[in-house]
Specification:
31% helix; alpha/beta; four-stranded antiparallel beta sheet; Rossmann fold; 8 helices; six-stranded mixed beta sheet; 23% strand; 266 residues; binds adenosine-5'-triphosphate; globular
Length: 266
């Protein structure tokens, strides 16, 4: 049930991600050199760059999987070394597709978003099972819950990974080429869905994509910032309506209702 408090506006424009003169090298090979940028609450940032420009490396640093060789990263105002609140960040890595024989079900994959990284199988509390149902329901994949993840189509898998990323009601979603290998129609539906989530569900996005058309149509024709071979297209939070704080159940239910009304879909 929605309470008054959940509708109260929250402070906007808080920095969610800050990079200060960040560099990264694989062994001796520099990949990222001296990048500084910040993402404010509710911004939508599209990251574009040629193959090998370092986009995935950049995202992996932001989610703490790689350590910068120089510079500083802050998440939600805290230095990344001290940041513990990883549940606030949903991450959908590149090339998620599973081997058809991989034994996990869709439900197990979605639930694993609640636990520490790399823990796919774990005893699940009743409350966690309900969160999982909500996320499956919101992505319209509840009927696929018992199927092996590897038996799903690319588009269905993408919905499952999005449900996994959404299960903790994240404030920040980081997506690495989320529509690779998905047909054009499903891609369009997916972009409608994430635009809707951005505009109505108070989520900040950082997304790598090669889809220039989608990026330009939503975020503008010109990059707001460029660093080496990487360009950043941004829709700022102040272009949107006032922030509204929502809880997971409300947020996912609304998303589902919007999808049922045909406003968004995948
Ligand atoms: N684990 C690794 N060890 C060594 N070099 C790596 C490693 N991962 C990536 N690289 C190299 O770092 C560079 C940047 O890779 P990255 O995957 O970040 O690029 P990208 O911009 O995401 O590329 P794409 O658009 O092809 O996905 C590439 O030259 C790549 O070969």
């Amino acid at each position: 049930m929605l309470t008054k408090q959940q509708h109260q506006p929250i402070a906007c424009h808080q920095p969610i991600i800050e990079l200060e003169e960040v560099s990264f090298a694989y062994e001796q090979k520099p990949v990222i050199e001296n990048i500084s940028f910040s993402v404010q609450e509710r911004d939508f940032v599209g990251v574009i760059g040629s193959n090998g420009a370092g986009k995935t490396t950049l995202l992996r640093m932001i989610v703490g999987l790689l350590k910068p060789t120089a510079g500083a990263i802050r998440l939600f105002g805290e230095p990344i070394q001290q940041f513990k609140d990883w549940n606030r960040i949903g991450y959908v890595p590149q090339k998620n597709s599973f081997n058809p024989l991989f034994p996990a079900t869709v439900r197990e994959v979605v639930q694993s978003g609640l636990y520490n990284r790399n823990k796919l199988f774990k005893r699940v509390s009743k409350a966690d099972a309900i969160k999982c149902d909500e996320a499956l329901h919101a992505m319209k994949i509840e009927d696929l819950a018992g199927k092996r993840i590897g038996q799903l189509s690319g588009g269905q898998q993408q919905r499952a990974f999005l449900a996994r990323a959404l299960i903790n009601n994240p404030a920040l979603l980081i997506l690495d080429e989320p529509t690779v290998g998905i047909d054009t129609e499903t891609q369009e539906g997916f972009f409608h869905l994430i635009k809707h989530m951005h505009q109505h569900h108070n989520i900040t996005f950082l997304m790598v994509s090669h889809d220039m058309e989608m990026i330009r149509s939503y975020l503008g024709q010109q990059p707001k910032q460029q660093s080496g071979k990487i360009k950043f297209y941004v829709k700022h939070s102040h272009d949107l309506e006032d922030c509204v704080e929502t809880n997971l159940t409300h947020s996912l239910r609304e998303l589902r209702q919007s999808m049922e009304r045909g406003k968004v879909g995948v």
